[in-house]
Amino acid sequence: MRRGPVLLVAVALLCAAALVWLLAGGRSAPRREPGISVADALGGSPPEGFLRASTPRSFQFPADHGPHPGFRTEWWYFTGNLAAAGGRRFGYQLTFFRVALSPVPSKRASRWGANDIIMGHFALTDVEERRFHHFERFSRSALGLAGAGGRPLRVWLEDWSATEVGEKPWRMRLTAREGDVAVDLTVTANRPVALNGDGGLSQKSGEPGNASYYYSLPRMETAGTVTAGGETATVTGLSWLDREWSTSALGPDQAGWDWFALQLDDGRDVMFYRLRRRDGGTEPWSSGTLVEADGSYRHLTREDVRIDVLQWWRSPASGVRYPSRWRFNVPAANIDLEITPRIPDQELLVTVRYWEGAVKMQSRAPGGPRGSGYVEMTGYGGEGVSAN
Fold this sequence. Notes:
The chain is mostly beta strands and 388 residues long. The protein has one domain (9-377): AttH-like domain (AttH-like fold), CATH 2.40.370. The chain has 2 helices and 23 strands. The protein has helices at residues 9-24, 38-42; strands spanning 73-84, 89-100, 116-126, 131-140, 146-149, 154-157, 160-167, 170-178, 181-189, 194-195, 201-203, 211-228, 231-246, 254-264, 269-277, 287-291, 297-301, 306-314, 321-330, 335-341, 347-348, 354-363, 371-377. Strands 1, 2, 3, 4, 5, 6, 7, 8, 9, 10, 11, 12 and 13 form a 13-stranded antiparallel beta sheet that branches. Strands 14, 15, 16, 17, 18, 19, 20, 21, 22 and 23 form a 10-stranded antiparallel beta sheet that branches.
């Protein structure tokens, strides 16, 4: 959805990033003033000249892992749950957002000229220490500072990067460091791509063209190292990649979304995003995908999934109240889960405030599946709050 993505928070993040970049001349500084609400940033009419996601398309890989000029925004969204040999657990998020400054890329005489702005979010959940680290960067796609493309594919922002290191199976190396917090991971796609929505066309509201092209690699084998508090641990686990590109906006009655990416221990994976209305209801365009253990998948509609909030948590930093325990039920698939965060405080206080974090789950039915995953929540608390 975004992310969430799907997740489309990237529009707001990147437009704000572009503005601050123009004023500050480069990498972001800590922000203390009020930020941007998702609904306000993504409402209204889309800019003219950009391509729209309006009809199904034929996906081609590995080409579609790369950037899509002509669309206003896209992102590479990696999340995952990891564990060290001694049992210490981590969650991580590494996301690269691209926003086009014009619908048609142009050659610029100056080496400082850029057609895109790249923003990155890097977060690490240290479950044992009950600490959540999160960071935000952005830069122009010029002078080698940031960019996306090439064969093999490389998406980077300064020394944060996602670099293709294998094609069959497709593998990416993810690296990011901020102070004494770092990841160096290799993620491997051992299953086919899952196309979300109508063959990869994911409709977000009733307005024509208010959609994205959206696919996932929901179960990527992961190995590497995590550094936190000056200690480096060798880890393994599972990651989830969401890829989405679009030129679109939320409908006028939409406030935000709750996005679930769940990896079950019976080999199945579930993605679902609930689009929330301003009146508290659920948009009919809410949808998801159920991936079977053999890699086959099917579309999930709003009627297929029931999500009930069982508990709430209030952020001590922003004062915003978020859901913090859920019942997630897909009756036709015999999935009835109780989902809880690994730690409650996984709120990102960045340009647009949102909650995104590692979760665990257990079956409410005897003998049912357990698992882990990630949840993203946007649009809670009204106006965004930014801080670091």
